[in-house]
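Researcher: Let's do a round of design. I'm pasting the structure tokens now; please hold your answer until I've finished.
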């Protein structure tokens, strides 16, 4: 343990060890080391590169005994740690985005409803290991599976989405991160396609973060940049060419948005058109890029989003101004044609449209754009 970095110990503190229960402590320790597989030669850190199997490689160090019970205990321990990290990410998001927090409370207030998250989204710089994989590795370690790639040529972006582990603990039937585990959507800016000046600015900061890319999940959970604050002129330069780049420079690995799973609500808001009307009636403006309601070509994925909140940011040159922060999205996934015959009470998440749609996501990205923000008032 002496070779671990200070950042590693900060992750360790969230694992909530219980020294009176040796088996539980051992589980937390193994889960912690799975985060540091490139920094350790311990056997528990050697695992397959297949996303869906990484979590279970942790169990390779289990001692003989009651194997089924031990395995189940380790799964629950790993999931508990994962949810603690997600809860920290969520807390940073809610503290910085009062509109999102208020909207979640509004939706909950209708028939005392529970919120389930459809997905969490993150933005990254695709250069020198700071891109999608810097965050994806954490989720892969805890049983998530990489799915389809999405390409956004006009914005010079690409993305992957990740499905949650199928064996999620059924005991988590609560609200938010304590409900069904959400999908994860991670995008990255294709830095090599940007202008030389923009590339220089981005690399100046990503290179200065040293090994910060190895602790992207920690940075997100702490709400901390892994590089120094930029100057205002550098932020403006990036914003001229890519508002995605400017957003990422000042927000880092923070959650870009959370998405409410509309069809999982119990009230009349489980219809996204009703939800959109409810949000606007309460004084919140929705992203109108391509229309308020974004619909996939197959008509089965319906999405909308608010505009990002703005926060005060002090740049390294002493200039303080507002910058876009995060927003909240809403998604309704309709039942697939082959399952239309099922009674509503028997319809599960696996019977609904899965995945993401480039056309929808491309417009959702605009929730942080200056043009949308200017018209927010």
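Researcher: That's everything. Go ahead.
Model: Designed sequence:
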């Amino acid at each position: 343990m002496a070779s671990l970095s200070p950042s590693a110990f900060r992750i360790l503190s969230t694992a909530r060890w219980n020294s009176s229960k040796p088996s539980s402590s051992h589980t937390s320790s193994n889960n912690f080391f799975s985060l540091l597989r490139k920094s350790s030669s311990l056997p528990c850190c050697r695992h397959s590169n297949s996303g869906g199997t990484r979590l279970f490689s942790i169990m390779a160090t289990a001692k003989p005994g009651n194997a089924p019970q031990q395995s189940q205990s380790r799964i629950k321990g790993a999931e508990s740690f994962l949810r603690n990290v997600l809860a920290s990410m969520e807390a940073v998001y809610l503290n910085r985005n009062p509109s999102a927090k208020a909207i979640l409370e509004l939706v909950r207030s209708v028939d005392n409803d529970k919120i389930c998250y459809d997905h969490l989204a993150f933005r990254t710089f695709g250069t020198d290991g700071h891109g999608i994989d810097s965050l994806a590795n954490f989720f892969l370690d805890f049983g998530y599976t990489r799915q389809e790639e999405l390409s956004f040529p006009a914005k010079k972006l690409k993305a992957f989405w990740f499905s949650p582990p199928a064996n999620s603990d059924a005991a988590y039937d609560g609200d938010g991160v304590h409900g069904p585990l959400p999908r994860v959507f991670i995008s990255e800016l294709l830095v090599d396609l940007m202008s030389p000046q923009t590339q220089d600015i981005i690399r100046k900061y990503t290179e200065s973060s040293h090994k910060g890319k190895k602790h992207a999940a920690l940075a997100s959970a702490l709400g901390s940049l892994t590089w120094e604050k930029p100057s205002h002129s550098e932020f403006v330069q990036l914003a001229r060419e890519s508002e995605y780049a400017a957003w990422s420079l000042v927000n880092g690995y923070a959650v870009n948005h959370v998405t409410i799973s509309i069809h999982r609500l119990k009230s009349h808001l489980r219809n996204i058109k009703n939800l959109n009307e409810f949000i606007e009636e309460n004084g919140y403006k929705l992203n109108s890029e391509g229309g308020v309601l974004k619909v996939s070509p197959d008509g089965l994925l319906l999405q909308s989003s608010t505009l990002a909140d703005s926060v005060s940011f002090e740049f390294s040159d002493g200039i303080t101004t507002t910058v876009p922060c995060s927003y909240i999205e809403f998604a309704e996934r309709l039942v697939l044609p082959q399952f239309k015959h099922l009674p509503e009470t028997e319809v599960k998440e696996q019977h609904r449209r899965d995945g993401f749609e480039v056309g929808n996501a491309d417009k959702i990205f605009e929730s942080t754009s200056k043009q949308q923000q200017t018209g927010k008032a």
